[in-house]
Amino acid sequence: MALDYHRLKSHVFDLAHQAYGEDDCILYALGVGAGLAEDDVLGEETQFIYEHGLRALPAMAAVLAYPGFWMRDPRHGLAWGQVVHGEQRMRFAAPLPARGEVACRMEVSHIADKGPGAFVVTRRTLGDAATGRELAVIEQLNICRGDAGYSGGDAALSDALPAPIPAPPAAPPDCSIVVPTSRNQAALYRLNADRNPLHVDPASARQAGYPRPILHGAALLGMVNRAIEPSLRQLPGLRLGALDLRFLKPVYPGLPVTVSLWRQPQGLALACHQADTLCAQGRAAWATEDE
């Protein structure tokens, strides 16, 4: 069964719920490498991996009440073995508590037929299950490389995509932070409900065109979240309000990632390199604590 634009666009996902606590926050933080860097690189990260005084990383909203690798469901007609994460955009309406119960509603917001494949964008709205207060909006663009040409050239079956995430300035960055990764980081991150075999099984990785399993794009996003924490600590009264990342090349577990940052009036522009290869680019925006 091939991708059917109307069927996929109108698919109704069940409202997802998740109660989470300290162990979930710590598992997420470990999955994005918290504690691997020296203290003088990212500062003290015990706050993310120790239950006393525990803080949840904002980017953890991406994995709460997450439906898992839903594209693997044969009802959607997707060549799931060829799916890669293209972009992730997150808006944080409020700080994420270290424990609570959340509800998440998901929809397929855009589908576009492009040269590399079918671009499928999902929008997830995460809120407090008890009060309904919005916590975050997560937009994820997946490139379904095995589903190019599904529209048969019919423009009505291909949506306009969100505006591209801009490239960082051409000037040298204001600072660069080297963030280590562990060889088993992708295997660990998979425990956050993202079981795509591309990230753990060598045969699946080779079938998708990679020499070995690659790191999740969402795990890289969490690493970037950690890398911008030192900048936020110098800005009392501000918190992370938005984080966008466009993935350009695969990141391999076990090799460090350099996160370069450019200060901007309301946040940061950023770029990620591994072994001198530009892997991702994006931006972060600040919000006031009372927003």
Care to describe what's here?
A hairpin with a 2-residue loop joins strand 3 and strand 4 (117-128). This protein has a 10-stranded antiparallel sheet with strand order 1-3-4-5-2-7-10-9-8-6. The protein is of the alpha+beta class and 291 residues long. The chain contains 7 helices and 10 strands. The mean pLDDT is 95. It is globular.
What features would you highlight for this structure?
291 residues, alpha+beta, ten-stranded antiparallel β-sheet, globular
Number of strands: 10
Provide the low-confidence segments as ranges.
none
Give helix and strand order, one letter per element, not per position.
HEHHHEEEEEHHHEEEE
Structural class: alpha+beta
Estimated radius of gyration? 18 Å
Strand content: 25-35%
* Sequence of strands across the biggest β-sheet: 1-3-4-5-2-7-10-9-8-6
Mean of pLDDT: 95
- How widely separated are the two ends? 46 Å
The helix fraction, in percent, is: 10-25%
Biggest beta-sheet profile? 10 strands, antiparallel
Count of separate DSSP helical elements: 7
> Can you tell me the overall shape?
globular
